[in-house]
Amino acid sequence: MTARDLVQQSGLGERKWRRRSLWALLLLIPLTLAVEAYDSIKALLADNDLFARRVAWGQSVHFGGSDWKLTNLRGAFGMANLPPDSVPVLADFSVKVGDPDLQKLWLGCKVMLIDAAGRRWSPTSAVTLKAPADVQTCTSAIFSGAKSGDTLNLRETFLVPKDVAKSIRPAVGLASERPHFLLFQLERD
Amino acid sequence: MMRKTANIVLLLVAVAFCYGLQLSKPHYGDLIGPIPTRGRTGETIVGRNFEARAEKVVFARNLKADRYGETKILTTGGVWAVVTVEFAARAQSTSVAVASWRGPTGLAYDQTERMSFADGLLPVTIDPGLPKKARLVFELRPDEVSNAILLISEKLMSALDSQAEISLGPVATASDSLPAGTVDTLDLTQPM
Q1: What ipTM was predicted for this assembly?
Q2: Which residue of A16, A84, B25, B97 is surrounded by the most CB atoms within 10 Å?
């Protein structure tokens, strides 16, 4: 084998590998993007209530280790000192605790109201209504030390415009279940 | 020889291209900074999560406010600017917490912290369909008043989120070097 042959051969090998490398990029670039984006996508899914699980009226659903049931949704009409055309809405839930590790399972608990257009209302601090002593909010229930088998009464208060009061549905999201959340249907649905 | 020259030319082109990119590309801070939505006083500025409309700006020598039932007068060596802004939430409840006043020379003034006891200031929580007014109070140098821009965002680190930029327009100066129409004492206990 002459030196010239060797040079020619290595040139051939180089060309072959260059072509292989270029083809490999087709695979490697999307793969890199996927690996780089993995953490961001995981965080996006874990932080947002994206996919609704519909719950029929009167039905109890296992969510975040406990059984959730919507017991009441009503407006508190006739209150003074509120913005015009607004109405406070109270959402009551009855939750039978299954797994008592609420501090882990109920972390980031978020109760909200969602209207037909998808707008979301968070609980308000503008309205304070007297509640029975055994009624808690979702966040305060986390630290209530509830045991397995206990039933918690949760209530959240919202302020919504009067014209959407008919179309709103309550929803519950927990960090341990995100991106899924519960969307409760009402009796008339 | 030919090949060598071609390589050198290619390298030079690449260097020039990279230098051009470096010169023309936005700064990293701009890329991940707030996304401005611009408008003027009286216009509704629509951001991602909130809408803002600056209704009016009032300048005052002194402010009168209630602190736990006791009337307090706040004086200043400069001038008080009180902007009344109507906020509205878009798709979900949110709160607007941060505003600053950027003067014509680029000096930026945060909201005053001397008023933290008063009602109707930021942060303001807003719900969809229920617009709410709030007052933004700034303590300024008189020469930073004209052609200022009001910057409003939901939170301090509003990276890649909307920031309302409201041009407040020119303000005439009176003989005492304060803005024309400066009131002596503005009563903040009055409704907005």
Answers
A1: 0.80
A2: B97
